[in-house]
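dude i think i finally got it to work??
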Amino acid sequence: MKFNSWAFAVVALLVLHPLGKVAIANEPDFSGTGQPTDKDSNSAGSRGDCKFDLTPLIPVNEQGGWTTQGNPTLWIRVPVELSSVQSVRVMVRDESGKPVYNARLTNLDAPAGIIRLPLPDTVQLPVSSPDSESGFFNWMVAVYCDDTGDRPASIRGSIRRVAVDAPSEFALEGKSPQEIRELSELYVENRIWYDALTVLGKARLAAPDDPVLLEAWQTLLGNSTVGLEEVTNEPLVDCCTLP
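look at this
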């Protein structure tokens, strides 16, 4: 059964967090939602042979987060035109290191900015309890700047699908910017980072100049507990379609 009601999404999220507020707190708390990593490890990625750094849109202190979606969307800042690179690779692995998704995109043509990478329907992450210490999946995005493919620019993060009743799709059609903002804020209150970001990102791609959505986006990314102030004003680019 598919639920496409925004009201149902609100009720479902309140089941997870009955006291959830509609407004984002001054300091949203995403602590403990990313996969624990060694402090000395370079979990964020590297520049490789490229002359630029990629930026994953995830809370910097967590290097990952939660989702309610089986095939969530990744958001990445790429500071160069994609027509100038050879290819982009997206990989998702389970906790044992086994690949569950691996695709490489070529012949891309998009300006620099924040791109979205929605995983296809063939990817369905299993559900785990928010209290569980397992169930993390690790993703990597690599941008190859030349045809050798030896040292791409890469970034990594973690993602975990939490057990909460929610619509199988974000039903944003017909919703006002304020309703969309409130839905994103409810996800924030429940510490579900990827969904809070994707709700706003999809809406902003459809209405990039809407002041309500712009303010909500800048507030979410610019919060000190998220640490993405440097990309709050980057343009959103409607790219890419993963096979």
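Strands lie at 45-46, 55-56, 64-67, 73-78, 87-93, 99-106, 113-118, 137-144, 153-161, 236-237.
im so relieved honestly
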